[in-house]
Design brief:
Number of helices: 25
CATH topology of the largest domain: Hypothetical protein af1432
GO biological process, one term: glycyl-tRNA aminoacylation
Subcellular location: Cytoplasm
Structural class: alpha+beta
Strand content: 5-15%
Strand order of the largest sheet: 2-3-1-7-8
Pfam families: DALR_1, tRNA_synt_2f
CATH class of the largest domain: Mainly Alpha
Helix content: 40-55%
Shape: flat
GO molecular function: arginine-tRNA ligase activity; ATP binding; glycine-tRNA ligase activity
Number of domains: 5
Number of strands: 17
CATH architecture of the largest domain: Orthogonal Bundle
EC number: 6.1.1.14
Distance between the termini: 40 Å
Length: about 700
């Protein structure tokens, strides 16, 4: 089969770094789908990208579309032909409409009936024709967070499209998009090779671009930057901590990376490390350099978009910019220390937290109440409770400091630093920092009890307030990061093995809003919707941790008001499923449940137990229920489940000897109530009816 490589390059103005990786993933997925629809066989699909281009490269693309074979069903054979085999008007009309002779029709059975079919083969078109139609659809099918329009065009893209290159082997794929016609010309590096660059063949793309000072493969740029950064840090006697997020961003900001090492005044090392790292990393995209003990060195590594030529000039420019940033930070630090955090609290009255929910000061008051309440629920001692109260009052005070105003990423970090400088209890300072944790997926969790309490209270206050006024995440919109807040609550409770009631937390948080702000939902509706929202996060966390999906489903169906308890139940059930008794217990309990679940709940009256088998089951059930109750009180869920096996023998004997659906209504209801009691014995742990047989569950 004849093949050639296919290249499509979309040249643009500077695309934001954060857009690039998602766009390339879309490009690869969409290309694979459209090529399949066009019946074009191919090898691997690669995507490349820089700030000025998105490129698709398809290896070994077939020169011709695969032929399309279509079968059209006609009339039944007994209708198509007379008893003597002559074609009827029905089949003649069908053959004529399909453009095939009657003798070209084939016969096939569809079930018990034999039909005639017209089999038509449509030869594929040359690949360049199909690609000319595919390319505009591919480009317009890419989606971006904030697409732009330019000129008087109706099209939208991440940034204005300035050129198009499309080659199948050596052949240009002719198509138009955004007023441009595709050709074989691309562009090199904006400064090192600014003119047009001719592509003779698709397979030469990467090398031609490299010669034009453009490394089109983001992975190649990342690897080059990683190596250069490590070498430069080692020359300075230091190292750079792995930072894949920063590495990916920097790689997507440049087309031809060259790393350089700069320095700053060692006096700035007197400032907290985060004060130095934030402007370096977040604002300048520099890599901080650390010594072997993890302390900062007065060095940084930057990456320029170009070669090593005039590197001293570039280094001096980067040092000048950072010097100004650090001078500002040092000034903010000195100024902020003149006013202790405790004296800044009143200033929070002028800071709006959320338009409908009041000021940050009011949030601080609610936070203090909820945190002290949680301290009591978690049996914190008097000194811990005092630390929680103090930390709650100071938790938001750094929001009105100069440093956090300039570097918002430092909220909590500066609160801890200033609290320590103000002579506050170190545990209070740590809780101020920890109450913002976790800040993102995979981030550290609060490690201290005051920090956990404060973080839970802050997140629950935010969630309850937002849900009560009708603010909930929708699709990709989550302006208050409510999903992250709910995940944070789940992770903190599970990590700390904290015994807490979600319902009681929500009720307390809601009570702090009642009468102070206008709420759209009442407490019951707010609690219902918020618990379901948190439950969805718990479901995902439990599943990620390993239990089968139906184990998770069965446990959450029995309730998750106590998330840590729900996780213990999930682990217990997953372990119980690997025991020899599990299959028999599941069968017995499902049989009891299936027979009784559609009937009204009935209490068991021992006076109407008339058969020895049901008397024996009732006696064993009474003893087993007490054993299960004791295990549940001690949160020993595995033993509670194991105790269910004690009912296997009497349940089996009951079904062998007793007719449940007898004419005597009182006896029938009593027996159904007995089965309902058996089926319900496991429900405090899990709803066993949601389990599939076997130990693999969803696997």
């Amino acid at each position: 089969m004849n093949t050639a490589d296919f290249l499509l390059e979309i040249g643009t103005e500077e695309i934001p770094a954060r857009f690039l990786d998602p766009a390339l993933a879309q490009l690869q997925e969409l290309a694979g789908r459209l090529l399949a629809e066009e019946r074009l066989a191919h090898g691997g699909i690669d995507t490349y990208g820089t700030p000025r281009r998105l490129a698709l490269y398809v290896h070994d693309l077939a020169a011709v579309q695969e032929a399309l074979v279509e079968e059209v069903k006609g009339p039944a054979v007994k209708v198509a032909f007379s008893p003597d085999g002559e074609p009827t008007r029905a089949v003649l009309g069908f053959a004529r409409s399909q453009g095939v002779p009657v003798e070209g029709l084939v016969r096939k059975n569809v079930g018990p009936v034999e039909y005639v079919f017209a089999v038509k083969r449509r030869e594929g078109r040359p690949a360049p024709e199909a690609l000319a139609r595919l390319c505009p659809a591919l480009i317009s099918g890419l989606h971006f967070p904030r697409p732009m329009r330019w000129g008087d065009l109706e099209v939208r893209f991440a940034r204005p499209v300035r050129w198009l290159a499309a080659l199948y082997g050596e052949q240009i794929i002719e198509f138009s998009f955004a007023g441009l016609t595709a050709g074989r010309q691309t562009r090199g590096h904006r400064f090192l090779c600014p003119g047009p660059v001719e592509l003779d063949n698709a397979r030469e793309y990467r090398q031609v671009m490299k010669d034009a000072h453009v490394l089109v493969d983001p992975a190649e740029r990342r690897q080059l930057i990683r190596r250069q950064v490590a070498e430069l840090a080692a020359r300075e006697g230091g190292r750079v901590e792995p930072d894949e997020e920063l590495l990916a961003e920097v790689a997507n900001l440049v087309e031809y990376p060259t790393a350089l090492c700069g320095s700053f005044d060692p006096d700035y090392l007197k400032l907290p490390a985060e004060v130095l790292i934030t402007p370096m990393r977040e604002h300048q995209r520099y890599f901080p350099v650390r010594d072997e003990k993890g302390g900062l060195l007065p060095r940084f590594i930057a990456v320029r978009n170009g070669t090593a030529e005039h590197l001293d000039v570039v280094r001096a420019g980067n040092e000048k910019v950072l010097r100004a940033r650090l001078a500002d930070a040092a000034f903010f630090w000195r100024e902020d220390l003149q006013t202790p955090l405790a004296e800044r609290v009143d200033a929070l009255k002028k800071v709006v937290w959320q338009e409908s929910l009041g000021t940050v000061y009011e949030k601080m008051e609610r936070l203090t109440d909820l945190a002290v309440y949680l301290a009591g629920v978690l049996h914190a001692d008097e000194s811990q409770t005092a630390r929680v109260r103090r930390a709650a009052r100071l938790a938001k005070a750094d929001l009105v400091t100069n440093m956090v105003y300039e570097f918002t990423e430092l909220q909590g970090v500066m609160g801890r630093a200033y609290a320590l400088e103000n002579g506050e209890d170190p545990a209070v300072a740590q809780a101020i920092y920890e109450h913002y944790l976790p800040r993102f997926a995979g981030d550290e969790l609060p490690a201290t009890l005051p920090g956990r309490i404060l973080s839970l209270a802050d997140k629950m206050d935010t969630l309850t307030g937002c849900f009560a006024i009708g603010i909930q995440p929708t699709g990709s919109q989550d302006p208050y990061a409510l999903r992250r807040q709910a995940l944070g609550i789940c992770h903190i409770i599970l990590d700390g093995e904290l015994t807490l009631s979600l319902g009681e937390m929500i009720a307390r948080a809601y009570g702090n809003y009642r009468g102070r702000v206008k709420l759209q939902l009442d407490q019951a509706k707010t609690g219902e919707e918020l618990k379901e929202f948190i439950g969805q996060r718990l479901r995902g966390i439990f599943t990620e941790r390993g239990p089968a999906y139906d184990t998770v489903d069965a446990v959450l169906a029995s309730g998750f008001d106590d998330p840590a308890g729900a996780w213990q139940r999930a682990r217990a059930l997953e372990g119980f499923r690997s025991t020899p008794q599990f299959e028999a217990v599941l069968t017995a309990f499902n049989r009891a449940n299936n027979l009784s679940k559609k009937h009204p709940r009935s209490a068991v009256d021992p006076a109407f137990l008339v058969h020895p088998a049901e008397e024996a089951l009732y006696d064993r059930l009474t003893k087993t229920r007490e054993a299960v109750r004791q295990h549940l009180a001690g949160r020993d869920y595995r033993s509670a489940l194991a105790a269910l096996a004690d009912l296997l023998e009497p349940v089996g004997a009951f079904f062998d000897a007793v007719m449940v659906m007898v004419d005597d209504e009182q006896v029938r209801r009593n027996r159904l109530g007995l089965l309902q009691s058996v089926a319900g014995l496991a429900r405090p742990v899990a709803d066993l009816s949601r389990l599939t047989a076997g130990t693999e569950g969803a696997a």
